[in-house]
Write a structure and sequence with these properties.
The chain is 63% helix and 14% strand. By secondary structure, it is an alpha+beta fold. A hairpin with a 5-residue loop joins strand 4 and strand 5 (180-187). Helix 1 (2-59) runs antiparallel to helix 9, helix 1 (2-59) runs antiparallel to helix 12 (275-324) and helix 14 runs antiparallel to helix 15. It is rod-shaped.
Length: 437
Amino acid sequence: MNLLLMIVPLAVLSFFFYVRFLDTMKDNMIESLDALTTEMTGSVDLTMGRVNETLTVVVNHPMLYILDEVDEQMLTENPELLEDAIGFLGLVELQSNTELISDIKIYTEKSMLFNQYDAIRESDVIEPVSKIKRSYWYGIFQTIDEDFLSVPSFYMNQYELENNGRLSMVKRIQTSKGDEIYVVVYFSNVYIEAILNQYATFENSTYYILNERDTAISINSKKSLGEYLVTYKSILENDVSSNGFDRVIIDDQILYVTYREINLTDWQLICYIPENQIILGNKILAIQFILLYMAISGIVLLLTTRLGKSIVQRIGVLNQVMKSVKEEEPQMIDHSDQRDEIGELIDSYNYMVQRLERITAEKVNAVTRLNQVELNVLQEQINPHFLYNTLDMINWYASNDQTEEIREVIYSLSKFYRLSFLLRRKWHLRAGICMSV
């Protein structure tokens, strides 16, 4: 019955801890995912910033606009102008010679004018606009007023994908003559995917980048994207926060979703994880924790029970011995050298018994010595000389017929001996009482 009373509260407490542990682990996981998403967004922003810096260097170079104004006659009459153009294209090539930037192109209708010069043609920077007219991003520019566009691989034509890169930033420049120049900085999608995979440390979590048209830019798990596609439209419909995870239902699935805006682009970094995956992972960890907790609690309970029995048993022995003092002489208690409170109490009791025995023995010895002294004094008083003198006195009175004096002497002698015997008996009785105490 006592065991049942201990097990039931333990089971209830374990269940309470199990539920609280699940909630705490879920909250911690969501917080960790949110922190990783923020850190990942910072890395992607930094990457896009580097690409934009490269684009800015090219677009802001004065030579780009001079090339738009020149014609064949100006190049022929001004050789230094041609040298400046070649130096500018060398600078552009140098900007593309990095791990991130895969290529830089300037698409213009004047490409044939410049490419007739071997040095410019070999740089392979200036290309005709005709090479990009079949790309989707070129068509978008014909329908919008903006002059800047972040381009995913889906917007590029086959020529670009095979020769330039998988992602790009494009700047459209309107010339004074009504023509258009497109400065395109191509960069590798592998770099972006490496960032997503680097921070995607939680199993079953999905990170990917979409633009406002729900075109996938990059993703860390194509399998998860096909199973739960959280679009930019669904984010707006569910009012998902960009500062933390929200619990939403998409396609009958409960997901924890957040997103971040990528600077300098119309891209969004989206992260989500299914709720059932969070619960499943936390359940396994929670069960392990509860089993460990119950095992430790069981060991503590066993040790506590044994310790309780030992304490109760020793207190019972002490109580029984102390009760017996009312009827018999106190006895010492045998016990082990346990240095707990009960052991100290037993030691104190044994010390008290030893002290009483020592005091009693000293008292008996003192009474015995006193009796012996008194007896010696008495014996001195009734020694043979005393008895001889008394008998001699009686004889003298008898010779003179002094009967009355003889009677008084004999009466005094007998009274003296009677009192002496009574005192001796009293002393022996007192000694016996002291011995019993």
